[in-house]
Amino acid sequence: MQLIITDAWLVKSRAFHLSGSKLLMAVIASSFVLMLISAGLYHWVFLKGAREGWPIIGTLVRLVVKDEVAQQDRFMRENIEVMAKKLGEMQAKMLQLESLGERVSGLAGVNPAEIKIKPGQGGRLVAGRDLSMLELQATLQELDSIAIERADWMTVLESRLFEQKIKKMMIPTQAPVPNSNLGSMFGWRIDPITGRSALHTGLDFPATPGTPIFAAAGGVVVTQEFQSEYGNIVEIDHGNDLISRYAHTSKVFVKKGDLIKRGQKIAEVGNTGRSTGPHLHFEVLVQGIPQDPQKFLNAGRNLTSLPMARDGAAVTSGVLASKGNLAGAPPSQR
């Protein structure tokens, strides 16, 4: 393509030879310049109209601003809904932790009201910037992970405390005949029938016939029969080679194999077997060896302050008889 340019009097002329590529570049450059000029004019006219309040331009500006505000409101509502959902989850976890804390404190013997007291806080105010949405979300996620970790820890602690409480309930520390004065104590005495020195392997609780007898601890009935020396007898296995024995009863309300709860009525006081009068003969045996039941009953008064060994034998280890091995002791009035 050849382009010839002349002046007005056709005196001078100049010819330009344009190839296809040069023509294309010229068209593109012209279009780009034209777009820049148009954009500049549009921007100048739009800003001038917006500042001076031209009717059409003002309406367009209001529509654009309204659309931007609507988008921002929609974005804020969506984020608020997400944050509200997170907050609800956190509140549920806090309620779960509070419930766990109350149960654990009950097992540990702590008043739950003391835990709920808000700790004092204070100090000099050092103002900081407002948190961004991302920072707030990160903080909530961190709190959420901490709450989950604390809940798991409290659940494990509750199971451990519950296990210890169950073990304590399986140690015969409750008096089998409440509000009854003790008769013969554990140890050597003059046998009331033979008049000779003999070992008394338990405690006697004198009471009127028909007085209720309660299980000193939970366990399983392993013996319920009549024996010539013990009369109507009940033996309860509490685990860890620990057995409690109730003798000379008149009536028995349990049978072999029954699962017994601590404090459950199992029999009534009587005068059966080798006995001189109505009373309960109460024994505690560790690995088949009679122990002084009074030490168990005394330990029961302060059971919550006693340490509990993993095998449940912390109390029994402290109440072993100090009078030697009693396995071969001769029978006396039981």
Describe this structure in words.
The chain is an alpha+beta fold. The chain folds into 3 domains: 2-52; 77-108 and 132-169, no CATH class; 187-317, Glucose Permease (Domain IIA) (Distorted Sandwich), CATH 2.70.70. The chain is 42% helix and 21% strand. The protein is built from 6 helices and 13 strands. It has helices spanning 20-52, 55-108, 112-115, 133-169, 293-301, 314-317; strands at residues 2-6, 13-17, 187-190, 197-200, 203-206, 212-214, 219-227, 231-237, 242-252, 259-260, 265-269, 279-286, 289-291. The strands form 3 sheets. Strands 5, 6, 7, 8, 9, 10, 11, 12 and 13 form a 9-stranded antiparallel β-sheet that branches. Strand 8 (231-237) and strand 9 form a beta hairpin. Residues 304-334 have low confidence and may be disordered.
Number of strands: 13
CATH topology-level fold name of the largest domain: Glucose Permease (Domain IIA)
Termini separation comes to 135 Å
Can you give the mean pLDDT?
A: 76
Run of helices and strands = EEHHHHEEEEEEEEEEEHH
